[in-house]
Amino acid sequence: MTATLQVNPSSVFVVSGGAKGITAQCTIKLAQHHPCKFILLGRSEITPEPEYARDCLEDAALKKRIMENLISQGEKPTPMMVQKIFNEINSSREIKQTLAAIQAAGAKAEYISVDVTDTLALKEKLHAVAQKFGHITGIIHGAGNLADKLIEKKTSEDFEKVYTAKVQGLQNLLNSINPQQLQHLVLFSSVTGFYGNIGQSDYAIANEILNKSAHQFKKNYPQSHVVAINWGGWDSGMVTPQLKKAFAERGIDIIPVEIGTQMLVNELHPAYQNSSQVVIGSPMNLPPTPLEPELKSHRIRRRMTLAENPFLYDHTIAGAQVLPATCAMSWMIHACEEIYPGYRYLNCREFKVLKGITFNATLADEYILEIQELSKANGEYIEFQAKILSKNPQGKTHYHFSAIVKVVGKMPEAPIYEAMNLVEDNIITTTGKGFYQNGDSSLFHGPAFQEITRVLNVNSHKITVECCWQEISAQQQGQFPVKWHNPYTTDISTQSLWIWLNHCHQEVCLPGQLTYSEQFLAVPCNSPFYVSCEIENKTDTGATANFILHSREGRIYSRILGAKAVIWPMKMLNKK
Predict the structure, then answer these.
(1) 339-355 as b/e: b if 16+ CB within 10 A
(2) What is the tens place of the pLDDT at every residue in 417-445?
(3) H-type alpha helices, 185-320
(4) Closest Cα partner for 520 from 552, 560, 482, 480?
(5) How far is Cα 105 from Cα 268, in angstroms, rounded to an integer?
(6) Ranges 186-195, 382-391, 542-551: which has the least confidence
(7) Of 3, 53, 162, 489, which residue is the least packed, with the fewest Cβ within 10 Å?
(8) 108, 187, 128, 141: which is closest to 42 by C-alpha?
(9) Active site at which residues (predicted)?
């Protein structure tokens, strides 16, 4: 299969929107690496260049000549009239330059002037060129329009203009070409479809449909190499210095043309044939949503099953799958962030495990997350009271978890952990999987949570561990995905107290109350991070500790302060 999916000299690509702009640059780069055949589609006509415009390359000089020509013909030139002719000349020039660059790379190219939303014309013209070039083996769908406006100001015409070029255009291309013969389907989507963006609801909808179409096509035609590329902003003519400045203020990196076009070539390598969707570019950091003064309440319902959350099989206590407290916290945090896009979780206080959720006969038909706004300041913060509850068949309410969550419009700078100590004392020599499922005194966690790699040092009041969480699949994460807050790395950090208790007191524990948590940076996946666990108090029935998650340089990712754990009989935890 791999051999057939390699782009080769007999490959024939149809490229919508491929004669101008970034799509044209991508096509030229692809031709330089794989000199095959390209059919470029665009709405513009190639018009003969007027005699007066020849060898006139400066914009101002060209506009002057257009005006002079109109006057010589007895016309009264208007700015709009001059701009229209100027655009036509420049458009034809750019198309010719694209064709010349592709041919200079040793590839063949032909341009078709057609609107991809015109079903009959598209089918007819593609058929005619395919007779000459051979079977079409690939589609690069780069056509698109913009009509950026706030949703209340958008017209149905705006929506149709944006939506049809992307969605109807793709459908028409697929209807014009036998999908069985397609080896490559590349859809130019956008980070707007993935993250959303103000003023681009129609563009986000259209691009997200492209994303889902890629997954669907791959499912139906697994022999094809299919990818929807969610591009970020390009460093091209469309991105003005003012727009670059606005992007920089929002922390958005611009994609250099040379790097972005090479990324397209890389994505078509057979090694990536099973990646149906990729995001190229930095996340869209939304400005904080404007707040209304009244304090609102929100209610979210969720049905939870083991089948939807496979990671739970790695969190089995006394023979039953138990929802980690950090996952309940994560549900609360992500829900609060989603209510007001642009605000990010900073801290969570008074987090309590009231009655855990166990996936056995006690599992409720549904769980309800109740969120009540406590206070807020526009652009600054919102504080919520969050509770997870369920009702039994008799209608009695059971409260499972509660917390006060704060989200902010601007994150503070991450502090440095001044008491960091990464010196190795070689007192605890167990490493990696040796900490887990290795007798009554070992940690009970399965593979998704077995990510403490080693203990650096331990004494009567502190333990420092190295962790490295290997990211599990989205399917395994189920209803508790990693976003800004990562419930899995948070859970792993609390395991350090278990190791300390077992080493110093031959006891084990379960979390009772996480009291106060805060986050400044995302905890890294697939690379080491460190947890410094400071023991504040130890009694016969429990322990209180601080967990600081930090980098090797001491920059704090997140921390849990004053966490309370309950001492638990060892044999009860690992009982099957």
Answers:
(1) bbebbbbbbbbebbbee
(2) 999 999 999 999 999 999 998 877 788 89
(3) 191-195, 201-220, 241-249, 257-267
(4) 560
(5) 18
(6) 186-195
(7) 3
(8) 141
(9) 315, 491
